[in-house]
Amino acid sequence: MHELAIADAIVQVASRHAAGRRVVAIDLRVGHLRQVVADSLLFGFELTAQGTSLEGAQLNIEAVPAAGACRACDAYGPLGDFPLSCARCGALDVEVLEGEELEVEALEVERSEVEMARSGGSP
Ligand SMILES: [Zn+2]
Hints:
Elements: H1 2-18, E1 23-31, H2 38-49, E2 58-64, E3 67-70, E4 76-78, E5 94-98, E6 102-109, H3 111-119
Parallel strand pairs: 1-2
Antiparallel strand pairs: 1-6, 3-4, 3-5
Helix pairs in contact: 1-2
Bound molecules: zinc ion (ZN).
């Protein structure tokens, strides 16, 4: 189940950026070609986020459709499913430019706690 490994990576990246702050939501971009099952990823995230500052955070998955440039006819467009081919001429000689993303795009942390920490002064 590779979604679990992906979820684990998301948790690690997000908690590093959150630096101890409580995470409310995570925006994720997942390319179509990653063949990630959203439900499995959500489930895996729930599991791996348990006991971290990410527990209970909402995972927003934005699916990025596959797109690329055709080396045969120079068209740029959607590639659809495997085998990847040009939508215009049908050639298989395409350069994939979108659809392989797997990145944490944004992180929403609980603001009140950050301000509290700041106004509370340092020990
Ligand atoms: Zn083409």
